[in-house]
Predict the structure of TsaA-like domain-containing protein.
Amino acid sequence: MARLQSLAALAAAAAASAVLAGLLYKRKCGRLTARVRELEDSLADAVEKAAAERRGRVRAQQSLRRALSEQGASPDKGKPAKAPASYPMAPIGSVQSCFSTRNGTPRQPLVVPLARATVVLNPARVAAEALEGLASYSHCWILYVFHLNTDLDKMWKDPARSKLKAKVRVPRLKGGKMGVLATRTPHRPNPIGLSVAKVEAVDGHAILLSGVDLVDGTPVLDIKPYLPYSDSVEGATIPNWLEVDGALAVESIHFSEHFISSLSNCWAHVQKQALYASADEFQDLIKEVLSWDIRSLSQRLRPHQVTIESKADDCGSKADKDCRNKEDYQAADSCSIVVYHLHLEGIDVSYKIDENSNIIVDNAALLPSAANQNRCSYLTWRDKLNTL
């Protein structure tokens, strides 16, 4: 009997303990529920506060833009209008291109498949993670600044005196004019360029591109992936003057024996910093670049910034001088040959072109700045390219 009483007492104690534990658990759950509700309310308040601040910033930005826009229109006709609103932009990187100067840089992207460049982003502005996924695209868009435009200083320092030319001369029209916004001229209301390029490789803050029409040192504003389903418009049309086949094509390109030997000597100095695997591949680049007549309209009508060589010994100094002073250089062809220069990868390539558009590439010479370049080269990308 005593044992039964003891067991009953233990059971009663256990039941009481279980009831007490249940009460404590319920109280604890109540406290936790209250705490969760308190945190949820606090989070909702924080979200609402952030949304209110964001709405305030948007309203302030809109008010500022309206104020700046209103400043552009002067209420008094006698007073000059103030500068219109502007939007701050800064380059995110720059281009290291095979094209040292504007002369020879293709007029459009992808027409010279071997034309290579490296876009190097500024680590202080753009993290390397920003390029994650870009290598999965075949092509990308490059937005950049036409930094070598001759009228940039006037546009920035005194925009009121910088008048936009409504029409520009078009190479395919042989000097005929077309509306500036109907062309790809670099001399635009705002000196912004847009080019598509093939993505060869991505490494850290650098992108290797091909098919570029970008000159060395070009400041890059943005990079966007090329999307065929939206960027390639089915059924798109162009004006008839753009459909002329071979309008700027040359007849033939030949390399002299002297050029082959001189290129070999130059290549020994530049190969460690060039974007090409060999002198033969570099020669292929030259052929692709020169397969289109890269001369400007004024150079074709009146060559300038080139070398004039005498054709024969009987073309004396007086005749030579007379030839150089003529306005129309075509009249000088009987006593002189025009030698043009193309700067690629730190090498000065000299060539001549006759009246039938046949090109002879004569010489290769090392440019003075070639040895001082510090840039990404083929050796930088070799392992990346071999794994593609």
About this structure: Residues 311-335 have pLDDT under 50 and may be disordered.
